Automatic annotation (TrEMBL):
Belongs to the cysteine synthase/cystathionine beta-synthase family. The modification N6-(pyridoxal phosphate)lysine is found at K52. This is Cysteine synthase. Its cofactor is pyridoxal 5'-phosphate. It comes from Salinisphaera shabanensis E1L3A. It holds the Pfam family PALP.
Length: 306
């Protein structure tokens, strides 16, 4: 006899399948070619509110399937925010202890979200940054304090996007997608989507977005060579666009005010890059990743600036 438990899906069934929506007003204001279609994939729809729900669930699930971890074990990860929130959510859902290491200058909303899921947070200084957080995570693993999932080197990170995000984009556009735009942090999103989309049509252009110069855009990095994510394969990216922090933040605020899409600065970077591409091409279908929701950044004051 089937119980009610068999009728209703659990939380993990709602990771992915985010909305893909067309931008209506911004393309015109940026003088984009009218024949182009710009599509925003709203990853804030995920249970923990960002695109990182996909790799977080993939890394923990695959590790459990391999027998590397079991409920009750301690997991460790260096994070700037969204991955940590997502991992904390999955760990709470599946019964793991989660220790997250992050720079002290990350927004309070992110820290509060991680704590709400029961994660322990260890801070490193702003000067140590993500490099220092990654070094400390490795040191803790060597000392036997838990297992580092290592989003920067774990193939289950891009695998999540190869198996879900890429196919969703291909199916939602009926194979008409011509350009894919994603910011580059751990690079899992762009690596997994590039692999899948290029298998379907090698002519699809894969566009990476990174901060210009000394710009600081949460969630996007220009890594020193020795810290470059091991999952990153440069040949999978056709073009990299450098975006200034001010341009990313302006696009982010206009996205909210003119499209009704409330997102964070990294999403602004994707939007800015996609709008500039749309001025160069015609008859294109340009899809971009909107990584998370804007309420995660309110305490930083980024939405208070004119």
């Amino acid at each position: 006899m089937n119980s009610n438990n068999d009728r209703y899906p659990t939380l993990d069934h709602f990771v992915g399948q985010s909305a893909l929506t067309r931008l209506q007003r911004l393309p015109e204001s940026y003088s984009s070619q009218p024949s182009n279609t710009l599509l925003a994939k709203l990853e804030g729809d995920n249970p923990a509110g960002s695109v990182k729900d996909r790799p977080a669930y993939s890394m923990i699930r695959r590790a459990a399937e391999r027998g590397d971890i079991k409920p009750g074990d301690t997991l460790i990860e260096a994070t700037s925010g969204n991955t940590g929130i997502a991992l904390a959510m999955v760990a709470a859902m599946q019964g793991y202890r989660m220790v997250l290491i992050m720079p002290e200058n990350m927004s309070e909303e992110r820290r509060a979200s991680m704590r709400a899921y029961g994660a322990e947070i260890i801070s490193v200084s702003e000067s140590e940054g993500m490099e220092g957080a990654r070094d400390l995570a490795a040191e803790m693993q060597r000392d036997g304090k838990g297992l580092v999932l290592d989003q920067f080197a774990n193939p289950d990170n891009p695998r999540a996007h190869y198996e879900t995000t890429g196919p969703e984009l291909w199916q939602a556009t009926n194979g008409q997608i011509t350009h894919f735009v994603a910011t580059m942090g751990t690079t899992g999103t762009i690596m997994g989507c590039s692999r899948y989309l290029k298998e379907q049509n090698p002519d699809i252009q894969i566009i990476g977005v990174q901060p210009a110069g000394e710009s600081k855009i949460p969630g996007i990095r220009r890594w020193p060579e020795e810290y470059l994510p091991k999952i990153f394969e440069p040949e999978r990216v056709d073009r990299v666009i450098d975006v200034e922090q001010a341009d990313a933040e302006t696009a982010m605020k206009r996205l909210a005010r003119e499209e009704g899409i409330f997102a964070g600065p990294s999403s602004g970077g994707s939007v800015f890059a996609a709008l500039n591409i749309a001025r160069e091409v015609e008859n294109a279908t340009i899809a971009m990743i909107i990584c998370d929701r804007g309420d995660r950044y309110l305490s930083t004051g980024v939405y208070d600036k004119p």
